[in-house]
Amino acid sequence: KLNTKTIIIDIPTHKVGYSTNLYNKLLSLNIDYVVSPVMGGPLQAEEGILGAIVGCNKNKYKFAKNILLNFCKNVFYFGDTETAVKAKLISNFLSLGTTTFVIETLKAANKLNIDLKKIYEVAKLGSGNSVALNRIAEKALNDDYKGYIFSVNNALKDFTYIQELLKDMPDAEKLSSVTKSFYKNAKENGYGDLLISELIKK
Questions:
Q1: Cβ 122 vs Cβ 109: under 8 Å
Q2: Residue 130 contacts by C-beta under 8 Å, 6 or more apart in sequence?
Q3: pTM for the complete prediction?
């Protein structure tokens, strides 16, 4: 049984509304709740260089930050729990959207018989350069398509949440819908457990 001195720090990516419901339920039990979805993956967690997006009562932030700095390089306070959840989803909209373009670009290069090493070197010189490009392409050049440690199932889940968040923004919602369909189709084809970067060869 949790006592009133307990502070829960919750790090997964939530859908809109979930953290507020959980916050209110725990508040009724006099238990403090901090939502802190993180940016980065398993490798960044091992190295202690994740980024944390924090939402909580302001007076609990300092305590939460001290805990999070054990495995995070940077910790950012966004206000209440719902704002932090929205910030995480918007951040994922950018990062997963960029990653999807990288995947499709490399897949297209393969199918068009374009030298992957050369197109990668060209891309790095322009605004197409990104962390996602470097993670995926560096390994793909050696026939390793596990450069981006994030599953198709997780990408589909996140884009479902993102599309819901953006429902009142027509253009952004359309982009999220198209990108979501990429992962929905992959799952329907039996690739749900693959890493999204493995889709380059599918």
A1: no
A2: 98, 102
A3: 0.92
